[in-house]
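2 proteins. here.
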Amino acid sequence: MTTTSPISRTPAPAALQLNTPHRFYRGGERILAFRGLPVPEDFDGHRPEDWLASTTHLFAEGGGGVTQLDDGMTLPAALAADAEGWLGAAHVAQFGAEPQLLTKLLDSGERLPVHSHPDRTFAARHLDCDHGKTEAWLILDAAPGATVWLGFGDGLETDELAALVDAQDERLLAALNPIEVSRGDAILVPAGQPHAIGAGVLLVELQEPTDLSVMLEHERFGLEEAHAFLGLPRATALESVVRDALPPAGIAALRRRWTDTRGVGPALPSQAEEFFRAQVVRLDGDGSVVVDRGFAVTVVVEGRGTLTTEDDGSSLDIAAGDVLLTPHGAGDLRIAGDVTVLRCLPPTPVGRPTVPSDPPPTDRASGPS
């Protein structure tokens, strides 16, 4: 990425450097390849997540995870120093100096364990945390036949779920709905829904800013129960899991294709907007578009182009594999070129218009991450 104008501002759009904490499962090579980086000689094969614009610490596994900016300041410190410049006055008035968002690149070098995440009510009651962990997956690449799993196919009683967790065998995965995925799929994963990601998937993940996971499947990954159940009694942790069946119509309501967008449009179902927003910008080299100012993680997924701040005309060349943090204070942004980008944004403050509005529905069939 090269700067094509000497004009600068504070804060300004800037590249995000690699931030890959050690995790218990394998992966990471696809992240390095996507970002155009070599595999280090000492690469340990357990760097499957790149935490982007993170104010969140790992729950376990040694901590870490918070983003450090190029000037050496951590992102939380930068936000504290100039919250309105980074996030905008409306956001700060409602949410304070917290982005309300964690974005990741995730590369599943192996199948992830079956797990779920608590919702806000459970997190507040049992974990002294304002956020649960609703999340969403935007699939960038997937091996042929790659599969994710979401929700139980049939409803379970409390004792039936406990028995499956006790058994720690393949019956737990078999109880979930399998979904074959390919590049362009977008799936919203509400807090509480059990899920897993199969091997061979590279995705952009948006989530509430926590690292809270209930690891229903944990023995085969060498996880201690204190880690698996968030330090809670097992029975209490399992109360956070949605045991009702997730039927085909329910799954369909959580899905869309972000690659169906031309120009500018939402990447996720509208019910995601309570938690975060994802915007697709797809241009074919003809003309340009202006997107509204806002704190956003911008992932360039294809092609080449430019990103220009409308206020002062400063411009960045952008290309596939670039990851940028754009602050509210940079103003509206003009994107041009033969380029596709995904913009990951916080929820819209109450009373403010959403960007962009959701189009009419179509007839399409209705921790780790």
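next one coming up
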Amino acid sequence: MKNLIKILPIAAFLSITACDKNQKADQLVTEETTMEAPVAEAPVAATPEEMMAEAQSKPLTTVALSEAAFAFGKMKKGEQKEHVYEVTNTGKNPLIISQVKPGCGCTVPDFTKDPILPGQKGKITLKFDSSSFDGMVSKSAEVYANVEKAPMVLSFTADIQPN
């Protein structure tokens, strides 16, 4: 107890002398030398009209799809599968796929980003995660490209079986 009585006046003195004029005893003084990193802005989702305008701002061409619809058949719940749709540029101008927009977050698209020259082929891959579904499922994705009838729609079905 005697030691506590000796320490209290010292603690009070240190707390008073450690403070700046404009500070209270319970404020912490720190020197901040942090550099602020530039904050990247989140991309703003384009409207279908904006995506269409961007896609059709290039010279138009024609395209042939290997298929517009695909059936995965039976899948176990939680299984992930993907399917590759092949696109062939049948026109006279380069085919530019500007965006592939799936109908929901269960489908992740990937596609040929470089211009597809006339007569050449490109790919659009749709990866499907069945974790949130039971039974028959039908999903689609819109493909925005420099073709007259855009967006093109790719679809797939799956029969999700319980584990």
